[in-house]
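In this section we walk through a basic example: taking a raw amino acid sequence and producing a predicted 3D structure, encoded as discrete structure tokens. The instruction is simple. Fold the sequence below.
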Amino acid sequence: AETSVRSGNTVVHYSAVPTTRLTPEIARQYGITRSANRALVNIAVREGEPGKDSAVPATVVIAATNLVGQRSDLRVLEVREGDAIYYLAEARIAGEDTLAFEVEVTREGATAPIRVQFRQEFFPQ
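The resulting token sequence is shown next.
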């Protein structure tokens, strides 16, 4: 389920799903590995009033920690499609797993980052 956090006039939308949910075509288009051992994190940053907001560029840093405390800094890819901007990162998962994500988003022109923390359970298919 997608979730969001608002800070002032900026909203950060975030989600994480198994990469097996992606179609082979979409995975290939973005260079994502479809695997039961991979999760995809998707971050979008929007500025403005609801319904009148627009995508804004940002610097996005993501780390993932599993239940045994193994932490990984994730490589983030910025994707621009028309007026949309989003940030994708892959995380490794091991079977039935829970990852805690720490996301730091610094909107272009902002001086302070927005920090988001969320947990996601993954179940093998």
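Looking at the output, two observations stand out. The mean pLDDT is 93. The radius of gyration is 15 Å. In the next section we compare this with other chains.
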